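Hey,
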Amino acid sequence: MLIAQLSDPHVTTGVLGAEPAAGLHRALGRVLALEPRPDCVVVTGDLVDQGRPDEYAALREIIGRFPLPVHLVAGNHDDRESLLDAFGGTPWLGGGFSAYYHVDHPGATVVVLDSLVPGADGGRLDEEQLAWLDGVLAGRPDVPAVVFVHHPPVAVGIPAADAVRLADADAFAAVIGRHPHVVRVAAGHLHRPVTTAFGGTVLTVAPSTWKQASLTMTEDERIGWVAEPTALLLHLIDGGSCVTHLVQVSHATGMTCGY
């Protein structure tokens, strides 16, 4: 199974809306150019920039006719009520009316978590959601599972980012560790690609389809935006393994020669 992970498009409206929309359009176009095409796309949060209903309407315009299944994840820039108003009951939220849900694809269970804390940049799951996750993972133990969440549950050495990571990471790791068929935990939020170990599996963080954050690893330097390429992650799930490729978007080009 192939899963394309896009992240942090920050779709908005008005005079600032063109660049984020173009970035998401380019990334979705890059997905369709892949051969074979992925089985689904997951967008790991900060779907829009301010959480406004008009922004979700703009997002729906972009993904509304996309020919592959798209699963949406809430981020700290999102508004849960507006997200559910716009996409609740649709396949984009697994057909339900919750921002955490799962979709049972033939080749993998896609699990989407909701780490949004209203008014905060950092994230948190809760005991109820973690118990739900434990039950979902236990229900399909013979099929690989990929768990998607906006906030990374680990420190990555960037102080500004580490201050707003997932708060209840230890409890999350304990649940993941009980289920060895979880082949990947996938996050966003950082606007940078990062890979590390977590909960007995691998955590990968996708870059943004809009713009990237600086690799600011000291507290005396201010984090900011940098003109690095936009990209997406492509997760190849084969049996009990998962291989992740970084796929350039803004700097992608055609093949120059075969070998």
